[in-house]
Specification:
Blueprint lengths: L5 E4 L9 H10 L4 E7 L11 H11 L4 E7 L3 H10 L4 E5 L7 H11 L4 E6 L5 H8 L4 E5 L13 H16 L4 E5 L7 H7 L3 E4 L1 H4 L4 H9 L2
Parallel strand pairs: 1-8, 2-3, 3-4, 4-5, 5-6, 6-7, 7-8
The structure holds D-xylitol-5-phosphate and zinc ion (ZN).
């Protein structure tokens, strides 16, 4: 199963004072997905942005791109409902934030929003063997290659082994889930993630802070 690897810019690293222009440039570059990091100051220390901002960007750019909402929050179920109701097409929650009963709620949400893709994000401390039973039930797994909570951190090479393990699991089970990688992605490690089996790479700093953003996408993919 060969899929093209795509880069998803992470809005967290953009120039917030020029959010609209930043998104317009992303559209010009033809990104099919934009990563939207929601941090609650509880699951992670920082607070980023949430529903009010999403409402605006979805309204203006939601027809042209898919916002991939990464929920770094405790009690993610209510937030998934909120973002799904606003038109989000891809949402990930953290395995480490899941509580008893969430699986049932997720099944209900899937029935309510059949085209919604739900992903499971895993922090560096979570091993694949702990979540492998869950992985196949999700549309994608988001492997965190930094500790969640901040942009601009250094890629943790241990993530590569996890990507390989997940790719092997996908193969073994004949499953379809995508594998995304998030954190510290750049031109040195992007192609390694692709080789390990990743289908999409989230790029915050290495895209938005690049001198030539267009060229940076190709370099990240290792083209
Ligand atoms: C980290 C966020 C990432 C971050 C990526 O907690 O989930 O999506 O924005 O940014 P860079 O690419 O700068 O690590
Ligand atoms: Zn993220």
């Amino acid at each position: 199963m060969e899929k093209e690897t795509v880069i998803r810019p992470s809005l967290l690293a953009c120039d917030f004072l020029h959010l609209q222009e930043e998104l317009e440039e992303c559209m010009e570059h033809g990104f099919t997905h934009i990563h939207f990091d929601v941090m609650d100051g509880n699951f992670v220390e920082e607070i980023s942005f949430g529903e009010p901002l999403f409402r605006k960007v979805q309204e203006k750019f939601g027809d042209d791109t898919t916002f991939d909402v990464h929920l770094m929050v405790v009690n993610p179920i209510d937030q998934i409902r909120l973002f799904a109701a606003l038109g989000a097409r891809e949402i990930s929650l953290h395995f480490e934030a899941m509580c008893v009963g969430d699986v049932i709620e997720l099944t209900k949400i899937e029935q309510e929003y059949p085209s919604l893709k739900i992903g499971l994000a895993i922090s560096p401390e979570t091993k694949v063997e702990e979540m492998r039973e869950f992985a196949t039930a999700f549309d994608f797994v988001l492997v965190m290659s930094v500790h969640p909570g901040k942009g601009g951190q250094k890629f943790m090479p241990e993530a590569l082994e996890k990507i390989k393990q997940l790719a092997a699991l996908r193969e073994e089970k004949g499953a379809q889930f995508d594998i995304g990688v998030d954190g510290g992605i750049n031109e040195e490690n992007g192609s390694l993630c692709v080789k390990a089996g990743a289908n999409f790479l989230v790029a915050g700093t290495s895209y938005f802070k690049a001198k030539d953003r267009y060229e940076s996408v190709k370099r990240i993919k290792g083209l």
